[in-house]
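writing this on my phone so excuse typos. first protein, seq and then structure
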Amino acid sequence: MTTTTVHLQVGLLRKRLQFRTVFGWVMTGVVSLCTLLALAPVLAVLGFVLARGIRRLNLDLFTQLPPPPGWSGGGFGNALIGTLMVVLLGTVIAVPFGVLTAVYLSEFSNANAHQQQMARWVRLGVNVLAGVPAILAGVFAYGLLVATGILGYSAVAAGVALAVLMLPTVIRTADEALQLVPQEMRWASAGLGASHYDTVFRVVLPAALPSLLTGLLLAMARAMGESAALIFTALFSPFWPRSLLEPIATLSVLIYNYATVPYPAQQELAWAASFFLVLLILMASVVSRLVIRRHMQR
């Protein structure tokens, strides 16, 4: 190989490296621009809600009732308590059904072909349920409990509607959490003489508990922001909650009702409730991510 040939090959190699470097810079810029465009709507919504809602943030918001039309001041204390009540009711209804369904799918559906086929249909049903709009869940609870006169507009009917919305998230996250438990733990439990039921409920479920709590937080965060399902079931009340069987105020319905009224005080209250609701959902999401990270590090 002559010296001239070596110089030509070195030059070609340098040009290729320069082209790859420039191409890498261009692609990094394109990806960064796409990331900013994807985040722009989220940042715009958060910034707008923060700017409009933080000005009314004070202690009275959490301790007082909404003001009558034309009056100033007031708060959304009744809606905050009502939101916590209906979300807790939905959690109490959804978690037992969701976790037991996930236990069946993960631990008891592999014995034979019939059970495996049943598990596939159950997972398909869960996926379909996850895509059901919130307003349909509200109409379902309304037709089942309100229109028939079994309960009427109440916190319990709202809890049932939210449970329908929370169920797919609970089942999916619980199913994935149980499948992530190492198989060696099941073998070790069986080797010590434990039955299948003891292994599932005393070894596998406790090991998957952090991930189960993460899924529960995500489901609760989604339920807090739903309004369509609550309009058909909880309705609204300007007073403090007195019973689980009466109409009850919630933050999402308060925002829906007060955002379009012609009274500035109630519009400001709707913006403050929007800001606080976003803050609650953001906190639930951050806590769930921290739990996942800590669990993965272990």
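second protein below, same order as before
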Amino acid sequence: MNIVVVLKQTFDTEEKIVIQNGQISEDGVEFIINPYDEYAVEEAIKLKEEHGGEVTVISVGPDRAESALRTALAMGADKAVLVDDESLFGDEFTIAKVLAAVAKKVGFDIIIGGQMAVDSGAGQGGPRLAEELGINHVSTAVKLEVDGTNVRVERDVEGDLEVVETSLPVLITAQQGLNEPRYPSLPGIMKAKKKPLDRLGADDLGITADEVKAKTEIVDQTLPPKKQAGRILSGELAAQTSELVQLLRNEAKVI
């Protein structure tokens, strides 16, 4: 089975966001595999262990993204592709176009990715890539079974469970609960250093920057306003209710 994982390198979720001159500062920041993409890597390795085949991890990003791909290789992926051509960086539209070109180049039976990126909060990557490739897409998977070309997915739907049956080729996005990602072992880390990692650019993929030009533009970035201290009301319940209504009407102005 030819298994492809698309992953993004993101800020460590414990990092404090600092904005300087309208840009998010990366000084001293730790980067990790997007947590939802880590579930995708683990599931791909489990599929390989069950059905055989090969796992290819793909990312689009700057040179530092190699460390995320090496981590995936240390977990058990077989090879990696990094598109580090800055002319191909952009929004979700751009990235889907570029990932589709890579997927067509390396081939695939199944593609797995995270259901959203924790830095942007966007869940567009998987659906857009599936649309580009003209294949089925099932989101927020919490259980995945493959039998021949048949695929059965249990997916999270706002706390409930939905079962979807489809067939290969398909793109699946991973939700928390799909598995428990393994830690890279020391031998795995050593082996990862020698596993193949190809770097591709626009010429390698046969696309131009104009073809994948971003459809959106970031015009400003700001931090959310600081939370104000809360108030604890006291007294009889009826008095508290009356005071709460007055506060909501006169101070918060929400009613």
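Residues 90 and 214 are 5 Å apart (CA to CA). thats all i got for now
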